[in-house]
Design goal:
The protein has 133 residues and is an all-alpha fold. It has helices spanning 6-24, 32-38, 45-50, 56-59, 64-69, 76-106, 109-132. The protein contains seven helices and no strands.
């Protein structure tokens, strides 16, 4: 790992392990405060809120350059941890969205046919209207 201090190694591994457990179970944090707590960087909460990045949806749109230029997060380890967590959240959000789409597709059959019938009725009406004129 490149880290020789055993105490730092244990703290880092514990933090990563807790994060993986949280995201593995599909738990999308509800607030920025919750999210920062999972990656052990709660000290930056005020910076996120002050710079209008106080929602998870906004956090998912953050670019790495914003961490230094807007939020003034200087330690590279903290920036890397934040960006990795954001990537994980994006992947989690994507998988949750895909599951939601699958659920919608399963129930979409009868509605689609209903809409198609409405469309055919509209075409039939238009054809009769133009035929009469």
């Amino acid at each position: 790992m490149g880290i020789n201090n055993e105490k730092i190694k244990r703290k880092l591994l514990k933090s990563v392990e807790e994060e993986l457990i949280s995201f593995k179970h599909g738990n999308m944090p509800g607030t920025v405060e919750e999210w920062l707590a999972t990656i052990d960087l709660s000290k930056y909460l005020n910076r996120f809120n002050t710079n209008r990045m106080g929602s998870i949806n906004r956090v998912l749109e953050i670019w790495e350059v914003e961490l230094t230029s807007i939020l003034n997060i200087e330690p590279i380890g903290h920036r890397k941890r934040i960006m990795k967590s954001i990537r994980d959240l994006r992947n989690l959000q994507s998988s949750l969205d895909n599951e939601e789409k699958k659920k919608k597709v399963k129930g979409a059959g009868p509605k689609w046919f209903h809409k198609a019938d409405d469309l055919l009725r509209g075409v039939d009406y238009a054809a009769r209207y133009f035929w009469v004129c």
